[in-house]
Amino acid sequence: MNAPLYNAEILRLTTAIPHDRRLPDPMASVERRSPICGSRVTVDLNLDADGRVAEIGMLVRACALGQASSALLSASVIGRSVTELAAARDSLAEWLAGTRREVPDWPGMNVFAPALTYSARHPSIRLAFEAAAQAAQDAAQDAVAQGPR
Fold this sequence. Notes:
single chain, alpha+beta, Sufe protein. Chain: A, 3-stranded antiparallel β-sheet
């Protein structure tokens, strides 16, 4: 028997999204939308001098799966590098697509196991991770272009 798609843990996560306010002057800001359901996640972030996430702000207008994914991302993103965010984005996409068997190495991702067979829901789950990885890359590139402050 399949586990319910919207389980208690996913619903709990929708009510507890850390960093749920936009940053006033982010180094980078990226919005991602799901064309299927219209879910939208905007990620603002700042990197520290070592290229790790120092601050994140989010605006989440998404379904329960998008909200839960945003909560998991924002709960564990501080201190992560650009490379780590890209790896998390990629491993999540591979796992959802079925080309990776192992649950991505990010706290709490196993909550999405019931969604593996619902491919139409995968874009919503990926939104926050895609936006954060792109924002981190953009911020890092901008920091390099500007040089030392």
